[in-house]
Amino acid sequence: MIIAIPLSKEKLLNYDVILLAGGHVPTQNRYFKEIDLKKIKDFQGIVIGIIAGSMNCAHTVYVQPGESGESLDPNFKRRILGLNLTKQNILPHYQMVKDYCFDGKKLFEEITYPDSIHHCFLVLEDGSYLLSVNNQETVYGKSYLLHDGKLEILCHENEKCKI
Predict the structure, then answer these.
(1) I need a surface site. Which of 28, 63, 119, 163 has the fewest CB within 10 A?
(2) What is the pTM of this model?
């Protein structure tokens, strides 16, 4: 059982670094809402998002199905409000999950590619990251843009690209 403990804005602003760990994206998102983490927008320190934590940093989070049944569930929401710390919808672990299947469907080709119509996703391989400073966003390492059903290389390994 997870118990949500509200965190005062004053206490939050006293930290230097906040780590948003990985996990199940919609579960983490609900928890962030329970503790009213939107107040993080005024935080002046460093926010590090890892996996689900990075995905939940978007204004509108794309929730890529990650468990059996989610892609078939008509009540499963693939777009939910996030923390609004980045403009990007991040999809991590690409080299690991690109061939995954859920509910008899290929995760990318049959689920995520169609969801990218009129949307853009930043697809990251492990070791790559997005750095956002004063609304300027730079991607470091091997990464792709997925939009309108097409996956295109953004940066190669050991490169950086403004986005």
Answers:
(1) 119
(2) 0.90
